[in-house]
Design brief:
It comes from Thermomonas carbonis. This protein has helices at residues 5-10, 91-99, 117-122, 124-128, 139-142, 145-158, 170-184, 194-204, 220-229, 235-247, 249-261, 264-268, 276-284, 287-292, 294-315, 325-329, 334-340; strands spanning 32-33, 40-41, 47-48, 54-58, 64-68, 71-78, 82-83, 86-88, 102-104, 108-113, 187-188, 207-209, 212-217, 318-324, 344-346. With 350 residues, the chain is α/β, with parallel strands linked by helices. It has a six-stranded mixed beta sheet, sandwiched between helices. Strands 1-4-8 form a three-stranded mixed beta sheet. It starts with a helix and ends with a strand.
Length: 350
């Protein structure tokens, strides 16, 4: 994945793995809990939620077990956002990877831009302007007056006086608002399980299976030119993101805390609304997205993951895998598809 603007387009749906060389794991501190703070309503009418209460080292959830005879596939379900001050350590994950013949990474879409270093430099101006709306329009000219009034209130609360974001496409403005709202709410969208997993993989050397569907771009210049003139149907993305920030911060904190502490009952009782579906649709349904094959790429990656899981259950005694929580909870998620194949599936603590 390069810094190309097309990479920014696909960033919402591509699920890139975190750094493959993790930092040295610090000594494990004791589990701590910060005091619960009461919610207040500010002068701008926005309710300020209680801070995330979990802190320090947390175990995370137990693992799902998919079984075929005496062959076991253990799955860790990941969640985003997570508590910003949490340090995740899971003895179960480390033990499973220590005994595993294979680790399967989650499915993702990969963009491979075939451009040399100097060509990328010449594209830098276009890359930097990729977030801007076509024809120089500002958000106030693109969204409805009611939506813009909501935006102004939320922007003042979470972003501040940055005027540059007013020139961005609604999709990218929504991303920026969400990122800053998470930061000020004690949550972290970039908090990752991968440093711990990569440490265990490096220590025990199981086979690693990277599951991805690759989109290759051989000449990025025409694509950037087309992108600069493309209008996206991203109003729903903008609206849904604002709604989630306005109404779902309490539930996001509860889900983050439940994941961190391994409270599966609470976690499963709080299904997460997935507002990024409308954001990804804005890209995949645009002409440029269809031409790249982006609409089908995510489904192809998921099919490849299922095939990798089937092969692992056939040949390995122990396999470890990682999936997004929505794949474990949704009726059409990958866990449901494994059940439909006839495998025995046990949830954590069963």
């Amino acid at each position: 994945m390069t810094m190309l603007a097309v990479g920014m387009m696909l960033a919402l749906a591509a699920m890139p793995l975190q750094a493959q060389v993790p930092p040295t794991t610090p000594a494990t501190p004791p589990v701590q809990e910060a005091p619960i703070q009461q919610a207040t309503v500010g002068a701008d009418g926005i309710r300020t939620e209680a801070t995330v209460i979990v802190d320090g080292t947390q175990p995370g959830p137990g693992l799902w077990l998919v079984r075929k005879g005496n062959h076991d596939l253990w799955i860790l379900a990941t969640l985003s956002p997570l508590p910003a001050k949490m340090q995740w350590q899971s003895k179960q994950v480390q033990d499973v990877i220590g005994n595993a013949q294979e680790v399967i990474y989650p499915p993702r879409v990969s963009l491979d831009v075939k451009a040399g270093f100097f060509q990328k430099l010449t594209l830098l101006p276009a890359m930097l302007g990729a977030r801007k709306s076509p024809d120089g329009k500002r958000l106030e000219e693109i969204v409805s007056p009611a939506s813009y009034a909501r935006w102004k209130t939320l922007k003042a609360r979470y972003i501040g006086a940055d005027g540059g974001v007013e020139k961005w496409r609604p999709l990218f403005a929504a991303q920026e608002l969400y990122k800053e709202a998470m930061k000020k709410s004690g949550l972290d969208n970039a908090k990752s399980v991968w440093p711990v997993i990569n440490d265990a993989v490096e220590a025990h050397h199981p086979n690693v299976t990277v599951v991805k569907e690759e989109i290759v771009v051989r000449d990025p210049k025409p694509l950037l030119k087309e992108w600069s003139k493309t209008t996206l149907d991203d109003i729903a993305c903008f609206e849904n993101t604002m709604t989630r920030i306005e109404t779902d911060l309490d539930a996001m904190r509860a889900r983050a805390n439940a994941w961190a502490t391994g409270d599966m009952a609470a976690l499963q009782s709080l299904p997460a609304p997935y507002q990024w579906e409308s954001c990804m649709s804005a890209i995949s349904e645009a002409g440029i997205g269809k031409r790249l094959g982006f609409g089908d790429a995510n489904q192809k990656a998921r099919s490849k993951w299922l095939a990798a899981a089937d092969a692992a259950l056939e040949k390995n005694t122990v396999t470890f895998a990682v999936l997004d929580m929505k794949e474990m909870a949704n009726a059409d998620g990958l866990l449901a598809k494994l059940k439909a194949k006839g495998y025995s599936v046990l949830a954590p603590d069963e």
